[in-house]
Amino acid sequence: MKSLHHFTAAVVAAAAACLPTLASAQTPAAFPSKPVNIVVPYAAGGPVDNLARALAIRLNKTWAQPVVVINRTGANEIIGAEFAAKSAPDGYTLFAATEAALSMNPHLYKKLPYNPQKDFAPISRLISVPMVFFVPQNSKANTLQEFIAQARQAGKTKPLTYGSSGAGGIVHLPLAMFAKQEGLEMVHVPYKGAAPLIPEIIAGQIDAAVLGVSVIEQHIKGGRLKALAVSSQARSVALPDVPTFREAGVRDIQAVFNIGLLAPAGTPASLVEKISADVRKILLEPEFRKTQIDAFSYVAVASTPAEYRDFLVRDYQVQGERVRASGASLD
């Protein structure tokens, strides 16, 4: 019996040594050998979903395998993040995410069903979306400095208001930080998305807000809203007459919406590098940039895994400071 036990143990050990894990068995040269899923934490039709689907179509051609977008919506990207984090680390499940899941939620929720710093392998920061600080057309402020002066004069007696597409989001937190750094007394008015917010500002019910260039561009060019500054290092190609925050003499609030691609932690580094290289190549293709990036006033980033990882470390600190300044909590 003892000999049989030793023999069985030896066979099992030999088999374990010869059979690599599922994740390590897939070499970059052979990847992918079956369909790949991209988890999107939003419903179809939004910026994250649209970019993921455009990328999926091109990856399908590159990889000669179906690339399918799976929408797992709700809870400020938590549902999608948990699904992706708990998927097999074999390169066949990817996650298209924003600051919400990766940098904000840890500061907004006391407990999460995933750990953004430990459960994901960054692949690439795909794009960034500059945001515009804007006011109603009938606002007395024609520059950002004039708005700041107006807000200071209003003070606590009749504080100016700023709107957002939801408490604790990328639209709310930068403006909360802006009010703090400029010493302004302002009242936050949250809405359920940008759609109901925009008409309220056009009507002059809200004094200011920030939204993505692609979302607000038509209203600015149509004369229904006034853009006072763009939050980016350089002026927006779509709104070349609008100064940056720095040009306006104000510290940039870094209100930039980012979309990145990640894999579950444990995905072999060789696969992460391959996927990243293939994705970055597509992002920098002239036709893809023209139709899927430039057309929406996005900025192609196409970072390496290491660059994206460094960005997430920095952004985690930035978002933490903003959440503390705003006092926001989503628990």
Q: What attributes does this structure have?
A:
10 strands, alpha/beta, 12 helices, 331 residues, 19% strand, globular, two-stranded parallel ribbon, 8-stranded mixed β-sheet, disordered N terminus
Q: Kindly report the average pLDDT value.
A: 91
Shape: globular
Structural classification: alpha/beta
Order of helices and strands: HHEHEHEHEHEHEHEHEEHHEH
Our estimate of the beta-strand percent is 15-25%
Description:
Helix 5 (99-108) runs parallel beside helix 12. 42% of the residues lie in helices and 19% in strands. It is globular, with a radius of gyration of 23 Å. It has 331 residues and is an alpha/beta fold. It is built from 12 helices and 10 strands. Mean pLDDT is 91; it is low at 1-24. The strands form 2 sheets. Strands 1, 2, 3, 4, 7, 8, 9 and 10 form an 8-stranded mixed beta sheet that branches. A two-stranded parallel ribbon has the order 5-6.
How are the secondary structure elements laid out?
Blueprint: H1 2-18, H2 22-25, E1 36-40, H3 47-63, E2 67-71, H4 78-85, E3 93-97, H5 99-108, E4 120-136, H6 144-154, E5 160-164, H7 172-181, E6 186-190, H8 194-202, E7 209-212, H9 213-221, E8 225-231, E9 256-264, H10 269-283, H11 286-293, E10 299-300, H12 305-326
Parallel strand pairs: 1-2, 1-3, 5-6
Antiparallel strand pairs: 3-9, 4-7, 4-8, 4-9, 4-10
Helix pairs in contact: 3-10, 5-12, 7-12
